[in-house]
Write a structure and sequence with these properties.
Elements (H helix, E strand, L loop, with lengths): L8 E2 L2 E2 L2 H17 L9 H18 L2 E8 L6 H10 L3 E4 L2 E6 L2 E7 L7 E7 L9 H16 L1 E4 L10 H18 L7 H6 L3
Antiparallel strand pairs: 1-2, 3-7, 3-8, 4-5, 5-6, 6-7
Helix pairs in contact: 1-2
Length: 198
């Protein structure tokens, strides 16, 4: 027996009918080459399933972000790197750092450019397990970054973030995690890692 699989959806979008037809055709060629029986799925049905999965995934594709805004001059790349490393972040690409517990993602720190006068500290909800207490960690790390970099923590409207905001967001996040679990797409699970990669 040979198992052939195709990913129906990811953050880049859903499998289209053309790619689904290519997958079915390739599977048929392999079956012929090894003289095996093959029950080919319909490309149109695969594409329809992919669209449904993509719609479900989009519902949970949430990023919770706090902005750390400089009080003075922009920070150099070295300054940002030093602050990120001191708090346990590892650089994964230019202007991007990740905080992990073992193999598990907890927080993402990004700089739009370097030098930068603000940083985004985010929880990539589908990829972060609730057991890591990501929201509490996010607020604590934002405060630590602000202290290290002479900065303030603000929301999307440029207003200082109040500690009370944590409780409102926590309730919404808990509901989102429950909905993901009910949909068979637990945050941080292997399935979520595949669907929300990239």
């Amino acid at each position: 027996e040979i198992l052939l699989a195709v990913q129906l959806a990811h953050r880049g979008g859903a499998l289209g009918e053309i790619d689904a037809a290519r997958f079915v055709s390739a599977a048929q060629q392999i079956a012929l080459a090894v003289d095996a029986d093959f029950d080919a799925p319909e490309a149109r049905r695969l594409a329809s399933q992919a669209a449904e999965l993509d719609k479900l995934c989009a519902r949970f594709d949430v990023l919770i972000t706090l902005t750390v805004q400089a009080n003075g001059a922009p920070w150099s790349a070295d300054t940002i790197q030093a602050a990120a490393a001191a708090l346990g972040f590892s650089s994964t690409a230019a202007g991007r750092w990740e905080l992990r517990e073992g193999e598990h993602l907890v927080l993402v720190l990004t700089a739009p450019a370097q030098p930068a006068d603000h940083l985004a500290l985010s929880i990539d909800v589908p990829l972060v397990r609730p057991e890591t207490s990501p929201l509490a960690r996010q607020f604590a790390v934002a405060d630590q970054l602000a202290a290290r970099l002479d900065a303030r923590v603000i929301d999307d409207n440029g207003r200082p973030v109040q500690r009370e905001a944590h409780f409102a967001v926590a309730a919404q996040l808990a509901t989102l995690y429950e909905d993901m679990q009910a949909a068979g797409l637990a945050a941080g699970s292997e399935r979520a890692q595949r669907l929300y990669a990239g």
